[in-house]
Write a structure and sequence with these properties.
The chain is α/β, with parallel strands linked by helices. The chain has 2 domains: 2-194, 3-Layer(aba) Sandwich (Aminopeptidase); 210-278, Beta Barrel (OB fold (Dihydrolipoamide Acetyltransferase, E2P)). Helices cover 26% and strands 28% of the residues. It has helices spanning 34-47, 64-69, 89-102, 128-137, 146-150, 155-161, 177-193; strands spanning 3-4, 9-14, 21-26, 56-61, 107-114, 121-124, 141-144, 165-173, 209-218, 224-226, 235-236, 243-245, 248-250, 256-259, 271-278. The strands form 2 sheets. A 12-stranded mixed β-sheet has the order 1-2-4-3-5-8-6-7-9-15-14-11, with helices on both faces. Strands 10-12-13 form a 3-stranded antiparallel β-sheet, with no helix packed on it. Helix 1 (34-47) crosses helix 7 (177-193). The longest helix is centred in the middle third of the chain and has 17 residues, at 177-193. It is globular and about 60 Å long. This is Succinylglutamate desuccinylase/Aspartoacylase catalytic domain-containing protein. InterPro entries: AspA/AstE_fam (IPR050178), AstE_AspA_cat (IPR055438). GO terms for molecular function: hydrolase activity, acting on ester bonds; metal ion binding.
Length: 279
């Protein structure tokens, strides 16, 4: 263990041979378990005879207090706290405590899950390095542009700023066994593609789809109702009424794929959905 502030746990596995430093992250949000379960299995396998062929693997359990409370965060969303002047409380300090370790990371895979069922997908910046990392995860869908609308405040954004490559993997619905499997296989796929683990026959990816987040639609009131149930990346027609916000229809002038629709109770300013343009 190389870092444990009481707020996070960081463990290092070093091959002793030249190669990249890769960090697999779970628990940025304390109520999302797939990353924690993937890290537990990965650490156990390395402890009982698994061997890194090159480079160094870091496993980061990011927000121990939120995990103990089974809450997304304690005071402030950790994935909005990096470089954010209005961040406060536990997560503001946690982001500062994590910062010195992030400069060591060549790649960071941040494992997440969602409250509703979704096809697994990655999110990150649109650079050749990020796309290459995405291709190594074995997932099929890559979204980019969230950071333009949210500001560069996520953990992966901070790693990007420091010269590394950070990608989020949204692995499926929280608590589903299949989501845990996808989180683990995504991490293994990346490590094998980087030749850090012994090669095995990898499941080929059927195809890759790149989705640009053109706009994030936010709630203007606490009275948002969707017109039907939307799955992540469902196609939406131009000018189709997606929802009503305080009685006003919410539409978009182009066909798009709806991204991360939040169909629960929304407050003013909350993200309702992203407008995804398939490239």
């Amino acid at each position: 263990m190389i870092g444990n502030s009481g707020g996070f746990r960081l463990v290092s596995f070093d091959s002793g041979k030249l190669g990249p430093t890769v960090c697999v992250v779970g628990g940025v949000h304390g109520d999302e378990t797939c990353g924690l379960n993937a890290i537990e299995v990965l650490e156990r396998e390395l402890a009982v005879g698994g061997r890194l062929l090159r480079g160094r693997l870091l496993t980061l359990v990011a927000n121990l207090k939120a995990i103990r409370l089974t809450r997304r965060f304690v005071d402030f969303d950790l994935n909005r706290a990096f470089g954010k002047s209005d961040a406060f409380g536990h997560e503001s300090q946690l982001a500062k405590d994590l910062a010195p370790y992030l400069i060591e990371m060549d790649y960071i895979l941040d494992l997440h899950s969602t409250s509703a069922p979704t096809r697994p997908f990655c999110a990150g910046a649109l650079t050749n390095r990020h796309l290459e990392m995405f291709w190594m995860t074995g997932l099929e869908i890559y979204t980019h542009g969230w950071e333009v609308h949210r500001g560069h405040t996520m953990l992966i954004d901070e790693v990007n700023r420091l010269g590394g490559v950070g990608v989020i993997a949204e692995c499926g619905r929280t608590g589903a066994r299949e989501t845990d499997k996808i989180a683990y296989s995504t991490a293994i796929h990346l490590l094998q593609e980087l030749k850090m683990l012994a090669p095995v026959k990898l499941q080929p990816t059927a195809s890759h789809t790149i989705v640009r987040i053109e706009q994030i639609i936010r709630a203007n009131s606490d009275r948002v109702s969707f017109t039907r149930h939307f799955e992540n990346f469902d196609p939406v027609k131009a000018f189709e009424v997606v929802a009503y916000d305080d009685g006003e229809p919410v539409t978009y002038h182009l066909p798009f794929a709806i991204a991360m629709p939040t169909q629960g109770k929304l407050q003013v300013g909350d993200e309702a959905f992203g407008v995804g343009i398939i490239e």
